[in-house]
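Assess this one:
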Amino acid sequence: MAKTILIVDDSASLRQVVSIALRGAGYAVMEACDGVDALAKLNGTKIHLIICDVNMPRMDGITFVKEMKQLPAYKFTPVIMLTTESQEEKKRAGQAAGAKAWVVKPFQPAQMLMAVSKLILP
């Protein structure tokens, strides 16, 4: 059975690029347009990994990760932050919230898939 990855980004075109790369590598993909939308989709469905933007309307990525980690079913779900942010303080905030990896946009799909394959649980 394919592993499911949730992509959380307010850019539809970016979600599409990431989705195509992931589906091409054999993953199942769910999409959310921001943190609020993503939390609504965390309804007990098994999600193996989350790829999340930092800067989004309604709820930013770091707040989303903190909220998600409060949910028992998703407490150990690995998160990759995919963002234009490269400042150390943002990275530290992301790690403190529970993000496992930080990929800076623009990114190479191969680079992202490498991070995914390292973090996705069997």
About this structure: The mean pLDDT is 94.
